[in-house]
Amino acid sequence: MKRLLAVLLVVMAALLMYGVMPAIAEDGNEGLDDFVHAAKGSGQKMNISPGIFAHIASRADAYLANGAKTIFAADVKRKMDAGEQVFIMDVRARADFLKGHIPGAVNIEFANAARPENLVLLPTDGTQIVVVCYSSHNGNQLTALLNVLGYDAWTMRFGMMGWRGVTSMKIGSSTAAAQNIYGAGNSVVLGE
Questions:
Q1: Torsion of the alpha carbons at 173, 177, 182 and 187, rounded to the nearest 10
Q2: What percent of the chain has pLDDT over 90?
Q3: What local confidence, expressed as pLDDT, does residue 75 receive?
Q4: N or C end: fewer C-beta atoms under 10 angstroms in the chain?
Q5: Model pTM?
Q6: How far apart are CA 84 and CA 62, in angstroms?
Q7: Please, what's the largest Cα pairwise distance for the chain?
């Protein structure tokens, strides 16, 4: 956990240098002193210096206090059919994206998602970002990071398994027999 937090802090610091953290960069410092000095506990007093680290701590606290932001595939489809602005961020490997993806999705592979050149592709106007992966595990991790950075990101529950009609995969171990996972049965786009 300490390693993940250290990586997050380094990534966020690097992103600040490139100016791609939309909400953090625009916030004033009002109220952050109260947040920073409100940390209590039986251990040593937490002393987060004002500035970016206070913003990160404040946003992480707000995200964790409100629980995970998830959305079902059927709700994503309903929004798309109603013409609502939704940015679909597919974080699967490029080869899998080309085999079938949600119409209008943008492929930004998970390992490259926090790079400045990819973050600038994301909407900063409050448009809902729906993060799609294989099963929602990686999507949940990236959704947390994006929310801490100030984006309105949501994980699509069960990833592409939830979008497709049927996905055949091994559950439990690599030696187990493949099982069918049933999803919403929505159509996919092949290729670009």
A1: 100
A2: 36
A3: 92
A4: N
A5: 0.67
A6: 26
A7: 56
Q: What's the residue count for the chain?
A: 192
Domains of the chain: 2-66 (no CATH), 70-182 (3.40.250.10)
Task: Kindly report, residue by residue over 116-131, the tens digit of the pLDDT.
Answer: 999 999 999 989 999 9
Tokens of 81: 């059919």
CA-based nearest residue to 150, from 132, 123, 131, 130: 123
What are 8-63's pLDDT values in tens digits? 555 555 444 444 444 444 444 454 444 444 444 455 555 556 677 777 888 888 88
Q: What's the CA gap between 192 and 125, in Å, rounded? A: 26
CA distance 76 to 101: 13
| Residue 76 · residue 119 · CB < 8 Å | no
DSSP structure string for 2-64: HHHHHHHHHHHHHHHHHT--HHHHH---TTHHHHHHT---SSSPP-PPTTHHHHHHHHHHHHH
